[in-house]
Amino acid sequence: MMDAEEYRSSLSEFRTRLWNEIALNVATNMSIDREEFLTYVTNQLIEAEEIEDFFYVPYEGFGKRNRRIQIDGYSYSELDECLNIFIATPMTYDEEETLIVTDANRYIAMAAAFLENAEYVVENAEESAPGYGFAVDVLGIYSNVQKYKIFLISDKVKSKNLIQLDNISARGKEVECHIWDIGRIYELMTSSMGREKIVIRFSDFGIKGLPCLLASETDDYKAYLCNIPGMVLATLYNRYGGRLLEGNVRSFLQVRGKVNKGIRYTILNEPDMFFAYNNGIAATAYDIKLNVINGISYITEISSLQIVNGGQTTASLATALVKDKKDNSEENIQRINIPMKLSIVLPEKADKLIGNIARYANSQNQVRDADLWSNHPYHIRMEDFSRRIIAPATNGRQYGTYWYYERANGQYAQETYKATPKEKERFAEHYPKTQKITKTEFAKYMHIYEMRPDIASLGGQKAFVKFAEYVSDAWKKDNTVFNEDYFKNAVAIALLFRESDKIVRKQEWYRSYKANIIAYALSKIMYTVQQKYPDFVINLKIIWQKQSLSPAWIQQIEDASYVMYQYLIRDDRGVENVTEWAKREACWKEAKALPYELLPQFVAELQSLDIAKCEARNAKKSQKLSDQLNAMVEVVNYGSENWAALLEWNSSHRVMAPSEIHQIQLAKNMDGGVISSERKCQKVLKILEKCRIEGYPG
Q1: CA 2 to chain centre
Q2: Distance between CA atoms of 431 and 429, rounded to whole angstroms?
Q3: Each residue of 486-529: pLDDT tens digit?
Q4: Cα Rg for the chain, rounded, in angstroms?
Q5: Is residue 22 within 8 Å of residue 90, measured between CB atoms?
Q6: CA atoms of 118 and 135, how far apart (whole Å)
Q7: SS3 assignment, position 360
Q8: Distance between CA atoms of 499 and 492, rounded to whole angstroms?
Q9: Contact 259/186 with Cβ under 8 angstroms?
Q10: Contact call for residues 402 and 430 (beta carbons, < 8 A)
C-alpha cells in the first residue's frame, strides 16, 4: 500500500503522462483534447467492463427557457436497460485545480437537460448535428429504458467536499450520477483487475448475513455453500447491473437474451418451489467477512462479487422485480432463496482462476466456447505473437518494435508499474504505446477485414461477442489459420484503420461519425476488390513490411471515405441517427450495392490470389508443426506424477475410455521415452481438458 505522499506523487506522474499522451494524439490526429481525453477514458471503462461501448456525440446548445444543454456522448446497456450519458469538463492542465461541488452539479445538470429537452432538440437542431439523431433515439428506441446514468469525466481531482451530488431526475426517471475524476481514473488503471471494486454489506439489506458452510479449501482459494435471498440478489443486480456478472456470463446473456421464461414463470406462480427447481448460482469474490452467531457462520460482507454461473437466474429475478409488480413479483421474490456456491480467490490469481471457474461451472449448460472467452487459446496465441514478432524498423530506426496485444485490461500499464524510469523508457522503446492493441480493438479491425462494417459499428462489447463466436467456430475447425501471417495481417488492418483516422480528420467535409465512415470506407474498398478483381487480393504484407500506407492507399481512403460519408448522412437513410443506421445490416447491404470504382494506382498494388493462397498454406503448415512441438513440451512439463494422479482420479470417476486411459499411461511413463509423437501429445492434452470439465481439479 502507498502512503499519502507516494499516492500524490504517483497520481501526479500519471496525470502528466496522460496530458502528454493526449497532446501527442491531438497533434497526430488533428483533433481536440476533449475528444482525445474522452476516447482515452471511455476505452478504459470499456476494457474494465464498466460500460459496453461509447459513441462520441458532442452537442452544445440551449433548450426551453434558455436552459444550457451539453453532452459529449452516450452508450446503452441492454442487460441493464440503462442509457448512459457522458459529459467532460474542459481540460485544465493544472494540478492545482479541483473539481468543486458547484461545477460538478452544473455539468451534470446540463447533461440531464439534454434528456429533458430531447423534443426541443429534434424541433430546433440541424439534422446534420450529431445530437439531433441521438435526441430522436431518446424519444424513440430509448424511450422505455429502466434508468439513466450520467458520467462526469474530468482531469481534475474532485474536491474533498464533493461527497454527495444533488438528486436529479429526467423524463420521469431517477438519474444515477458517476464522477470519474483523475484520481478515480488513475485507480482504475492501476487496480489489479481494472475494475471498480464492489463491496456488499448485508447489513444494508436488513439481514445478519448469508448463513454458510466451508466446503473446500486450498492455498489458492476457499469455497462456501450458502443461500442468498432473492430480494437481495435482485436488488444487487438492479443496482450494479452487468458489472455483477463475470465477463463471459455477461456476453452469454447479451447474445441469448436476459430473461428465461421458465424462471419467470416460477417466480410469479410457484415462488416456494424456486429453490427446488433452480440450480442456483456460482460466484467468486476476492474477500469476505465472517461472523459467528449462535454457532452459525454468516457472511456479512463480500468484496468484488462476480457471478460466473446463474446469470439468467439473477437477471430474471431483477427484471421481474421491476416489470412484474402488478403480478405481486415483489411479494413472491421475498419468499425466494437461491443456493450459491461462493469461491474466494486471491486477486493475483483471479485472472486465470475466475476464467476457469466460469468455464467449468458452465460446462453443463448451453454455453459455447465463444461465451467463455477470457482465456481462450486464441488470445494466448495472439499475445505470444505480439511479444516475439518484431515489426520492421521504420523512420530511420536501427531496431524494430513490437505491436503489443493486450489480452487483459491494464496489462500494458502493469508491465512497468513498479519499473524504474530507465526500465519504463526501454519498455516504451520496444513496445510504443501507439502500437498497443486491445482485444476489443482487434475484434473491430477483423470485422472490417471480413467486410462487416455494420458489426464493427455495434460498439466494443457487442462487436467483440460476434467476433468471439466466429473465432470459436473457426478454431475448432482448424486453429492453424490463426498463425504468424494472420497476426501480421491483423496488425496491417490496425494500421489501415488508425491511418484512416488521421486521413478522415483532415478532410474539409468531415464533421462527425468518423469510426463509422472508416469502417464502411475500408470495407467498401475490400468488397470492391473482391467483386471486380477476383484474381487479386489486398497486399497486407506490404503494409506490414513498410509499417505505413502508400500514396495510392491514402488517395483511395480519401475517395472512399467521402463516398461513404455522403451515403451515411443522406436524407433517405433507414434510421435518423447515423450511428444507429450504421449498425444495421440493411445499411451495409445498400452500401455494397453503390457503384464504385477503385483508383488505377491502387489496383496496381494488389497481390495475386494464387500467391496469397500459397503463402497461407505455408503459414498453416508452420503453425501445425509449432502446435505439435508445444504439445510435447506441455505434456513433459506436466510431469509423470500429475499424469499418475489423473489415472488415480479416473479409477473412481470413470470418465476416460479405455483407449484414453492407455494414452495417459504412456504420458505417465514418458520418463522412459515412451512418448515420441507430437500428435499423441495433443490427444493427451485433450483428454486432460475433458477430465477437467468433468471435475478433475489437477
Answers
A1: 29
A2: 6
A3: 999 999 999 999 999 999 988 989 878 889 999 999 999 999 99
A4: 27
A5: no
A6: 5
A7: helix
A8: 10
A9: no
A10: yes
Dihedral through CA 294, CA 299, CA 301, CA 303, nearest 10?
Answer: 160
More confident residue, 196 or 139: 139
Task: Enumerate residues 6+ apart whose C-beta is below 8 A from 223.
Answer: 214, 215, 216, 217, 341, 342, 343, 344
Residue 583 CB coordination number (10 Å): 21
| Beta-bridge partner residues of 212 | 226
pTM of the model: 0.69
DSSP string, 379-394: HHHHHHHHHHPPBPP-
Which triple of cell numbers denotes residue 201?
Answer: 454489506
pLDDT in tens, 585-614: 999 999 999 999 999 999 999 999 999 899
Q: Which helix (H) or strand (E) holds 74?
A: strand 68-77
Amino acid letter, residue 626 = S
- Does residue 387 contact residue 437 with C-beta atoms inside 8 Å? no
What pLDDT is recorded for position 461? 74
| Distance, C-alpha 357 to centroid of its chain | 19
List the one residue out of 340, 338, 320 whose CA is nearest residue 330: 320
The residue length of the chain stands at 698
CA torsion 93-97-98-104 (nearest 10°) is: -70
CA-angle at 185, arms to 183 and 189, nearest 5° = 115
Contact predicate 38/25, CB 8 Å: no
Q: Which of 247, 191, 182, 241 is nearest to 46 (CA)?
A: 247
Cα(527)–Cα(533) distance, integer angstroms: 10
Q: Helices (DSSP H) in 260-335: which residue ranges?
A: 261-269, 274-277, 311-323, 329-334
Q: Which residues pair with 99 in a beta bridge?
A: 158
Q: Look up residue 564 and give its three cell numbers.
A: 461513404
Q: Which three cell numbers stand for residue 101?
A: 461541488
As its CATH architecture, domain 4-190 has 3-Layer(aba) Sandwich (3.40)
Residues 6+ apart with CB under 8 A from 489: 449, 540, 541, 544
User: 148-201 pLDDT, tens per residue?
Assistant: 999 999 999 888 888 777 778 898 888 889 899 998 888 887 764 445 567 899
Do residues 404 and 435 make contact, with C-beta atoms less than 8 angstroms apart? yes
Strands 287-293 and 337-345: what pairing?
unpaired
Q: What angle do CA 415, 461, 506 make, to 5 degrees?
A: 80
Beta carbons of 378 and 473 less than 8 angstroms apart: no
- Do the Cβ atoms of 540 and 445 come closer than 8 Å? no
Helix ranges (DSSP H) in 400-550: 411-414, 421-430, 439-449, 453-456, 460-478, 484-506, 514-532, 540-546
Q: Where are the domains of the chain?
A: 4-190, 199-361, 377-605, 616-693
Contact (Cβ atoms closer than 8 angstroms) between residue 368 and residue 469: yes
**Phi, psi values for residue 665, rounded to 5°:** -65, -40
CA 346, CA 203: separation in Å to the nearest integer? Answer: 25
